[in-house]
Each structure stands twice: as C-alpha cells, then as structure tokens.
Design a protein that fits this description.
Order of helices and strands: EEEEEEEEE
Number of helices: 0
Strand content: 35-45%
Helix content: under 10%
Distance between the termini: 33 Å
Number of strands: 9
Strand order of the largest sheet: 1-5-4-3-2
Shape: globular
C-alpha cells in the first residue's frame, strides 16, 4: 500500500503504475487518449497511456469519508470531482493538459 500522505518523491506515489499501489480506490473515470483517473482514498490520481502515475489533487485527510465521484469532460479533458460533504463540484484546473497540480476551481 501507499502512504496516506503521498509525496512526489515516493516511487509508490509518482512514477510507473506497476510501482504505485492503491490505498483505497473509490472512483474511476476514463479520459481522452487512453488515460484514466482514479479516486484513491484521499488522492485523485492520473494514470497516463504511457503507464505513469501522478497525483493531481489531495483531499484533506481530516474528512469523515472519501465518497466522491470523478467525471472527465470529453471536450476539454478537464477533471471534475464531487465533494458530497461540502455539496459542491470542483474542477481541477489545468487537469486537461499538463497543468497545475492541486489547483481547484469551485463550480
């Protein structure tokens, strides 16, 4: 398993998918060009068609649960994550491209 707080320097958190175990998968969504997005407990992770994993967003670890959904725009490739505790949907800014990690815009 990966650690709860997953620093980019840890090979279990960023890098080849075969070396990046999941902690607690909760959601999955297909992206464009063969990539996909996994809700892995407190992280939203991108798995590229090249087999590389990177963390797009980390949810607060003091949440009661990590029950959320992920959707990907078929037009822009941007990722949307529901937050049922706060009753909002967030857009991960720059997620459609190689963009800012963890930037959030509330919709």
């Amino acid at each position: 398993q990966r650690p709860l707080d997953c620093p980019p320097s840890d090979v279990r958190c960023e890098g080849p998918a075969k070396d990046s175990p999941l902690l607690g998968p909760t959601a999955i969504a297909g992206g464009r060009d063969g990539n996909f997005f996994v809700g892995d407990f407190n992280l939203v992770r991108h798995v590229g068609a090249d087999g590389k994993v990177r963390t797009l967003f980390q949810l607060s670890s003091n949440r009661k649960s990590f029950d959320y959904h992920i959707a990907v725009s078929p037009v822009t490739g941007e990722v949307y994550v529901s937050d049922p505790e706060r009753l909002i949907v967030v857009r991960l800014a720059g997620s459609g491209e190689e963009g800012a990690r963890g930037a959030v815009q509330e919709e």
